[in-house]
Each structure stands twice: as C-alpha cells, then as structure tokens.
C-alpha cells in the first residue's frame, strides 16, 4: 500500500516550458487536492477534485490546469512556467468530508525550480 | 488579516519541557480544526483533530476556544523527536478546502 505518490520528485524548468506533475493514490479516495507551499505562506490550495471527471478551483488556480481522468490519478499541468511558480507542490487525497473521515493524506512533494 | 495565523517561532525548548502553541482563525463559521505535523522537507501528516470539548492524545492536548477563535496545542515532556513544524489547519466550510497556517517551528534541544 503505497499511499500517495508523486512524480517527479524534483524538476528544473526554464521560463515558458511546460510540464505535468502526476499524483497517484491507492486508497480509493474520492477527493484529491493539489497544494503549493512557499516559505512564510503555508500550504495553499491550487485545484481539487471530488471525483473522477470533476475538478474545481482552489485559492491560487491561475497558471495551472488539472485533470482527473481516473479516480486514482490527479494531474497538475503548467502550460507556460514562470519563476513565481517555483515552489514545493504537494498532492493529497481523502474520503468525502460528509463521511466524518477528515484526514488528508499527502504525497512526498515535488520540488519545482523555474529559472 | 490572514485567515489562519500562527507565530512562526522557532520555539527552542529543552527536552522534558512543556510547550504551547496558539493559532487564531478569522472565520467564525469554521467547522473543523486540526493540527498537522511537518518534518523538514517532508509532507504534512495529521497529528490530531481538535474538538470543542478539547482532546488529548498521550503527551499532546488540543483545545478550541470558539468565542475567541483560537486553537491551542500543548506538548508535555518534549522529546527530541517532537522537533518539527506544527501546522494549524481550519476547515471554514466543511468542504475539505482546508486553510493552513504558516506553521510554528519547534526545536527540542538535549
């Protein structure tokens, strides 16, 4: 049982390049989330999904797109990377909140540097 | 004003000390509250949920004061392994869209 995994662990991009971050979970969770963590800012929600085929914007969605084609995978795309997107990206998953199971399980993170 | 505010610290304490962290939140309608722990360069992990009546898990005690809109975490008999960043987390709308504080760093010294 791997939990939540993220690919890649670390990446360096040049401004304007594109990339996709992959998140996978094997806990059969309906909900999945993408966060970014910057010094002094705490984790901020980028996009989230409450089920296969559905996505919604979080607090800081601009410059990112997401897709949830399969229940176990949640992809985060950067179409044209900017230095302001240098950050640590965490994926998380959870059961639906109305089940009273509120824990979010996080992946190990992807460190992205945009030059 | 940030939605969730914490003193970033660092709090430097000797082993065996008792240390307390506070966190304030701005949305009075917030439903759920949590403390997560994050080790250096690792992912956050749930430490404990915070209930209105207060709750305890071993050396850790969490309390909620809705009237004053603050949450506290008390750690007794600190261990070296308690060194980490403690994130105060609030769910303002019971939708899973959590709001994270910036974290309070604790360093326990021998």
SSE blueprint:
The complex is a heterodimer of chains A (115) and B (110).
Chain A: E1 4-7, E2 10-13, E3 19-25, E4 31-38, E5 42-51, E6 54-57, E7 65-67, E8 73-78, E9 87-94, E10 105-106, E11 110-114
Parallel strand pairs in A: 2-11
Antiparallel strand pairs in A: 1-3, 3-8, 4-5, 4-9, 5-6, 7-8, 9-10, 9-11
Chain B: E1 4-6, E2 11-14, E3 19-25, E4 32-38, E5 44-50, E6 55-57, E7 60-65, E8 70-75, E9 84-91, E10 99-100, E11 104-109
Parallel strand pairs in B: 2-11
Antiparallel strand pairs in B: 1-3, 3-8, 4-5, 4-9, 6-7, 7-8, 9-10, 9-11
General shape of chain A: globular
Largest sheet of chain A: 7 strands, mixed
Q: Mean pLDDT score of chain A, rounded? A: 94
Distance between the termini of chain B: 37 Å
Q: What is the number of helical segments of chain A per DSSP (H or I, 4+ residues)?
A: 0
Low-confidence runs of at least 5 consecutive residues of chain A: none
Oligomeric grouping of the chains? heterodimer
Q: How do the SSEs of chain A run, as a string of H and E?
A: EEEEEEEEEEE
Percent strand of chain A? over 45%
**What is the chain-wise order of helices and strands of chain B?**
EEEEEEEEEEE
Give the low-pLDDT segments of chain B: none
What's the β-strand tally of chain B?
Answer: 11
Summarize model confidence as the mean pLDDT of chain B. 93
Structural class given helices, strands, pairing of chain A? mainly beta
Helix tally of chain B equals 0
- Terminal Cα separation of chain A, in Å? 36 Å
| Inertia-based shape of chain B | globular
- Using DSSP, what is the number of strands of chain A? 11
Computed structural class of chain B = mainly beta
Q: Biggest interface between protein chains, with counts per chain?
A: A-B, 23 and 22 residues
């Amino acid at each position: 049982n791997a939990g939540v995994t993220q690919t890649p662990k670390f990446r360096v991009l040049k401004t304007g390049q594109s990339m996709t971050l992959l998140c996978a979970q094997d806990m059969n969770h309906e909900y999945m989330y993408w966060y970014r963590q910057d010094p002094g800012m705490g984790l901020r929600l980028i996009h989230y999904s409450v089920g296969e085929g559905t996505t919604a914007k979080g607090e800081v969605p601009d410059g990112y797109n997401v897709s949830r084609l399969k229940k176990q995978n949640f992809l985060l795309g950067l179409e044209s990377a900017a230095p302001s997107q240098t950050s640590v990206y965490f994926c998380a998953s959870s059961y639906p909140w109305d089940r009273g199971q509120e824990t979010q399980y996080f992946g190990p993170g992807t460190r992205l540097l945009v030059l | 004003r940030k939605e969730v505010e914490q003193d970033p610290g660092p709090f430097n304490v000797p082993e065996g000390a008792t240390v307390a962290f506070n966190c304030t939140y701005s949305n009075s309608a917030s439903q759920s509250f949590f403390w997560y722990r994050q080790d250096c360069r690792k992912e956050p992990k749930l430490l404990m949920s915070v209930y209105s009546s207060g709750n305890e898990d071993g050396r850790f005690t969490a309390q909620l004061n809705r009237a004053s809109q603050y949450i506290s975490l008390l750690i007794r008999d600190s261990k070296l392994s308690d060194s980490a960043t403690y994130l105060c987390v609030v769910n303002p709308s019971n939708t899973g869209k959590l709001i994270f504080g910036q974290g309070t760093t604790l360093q326990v010294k021998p």
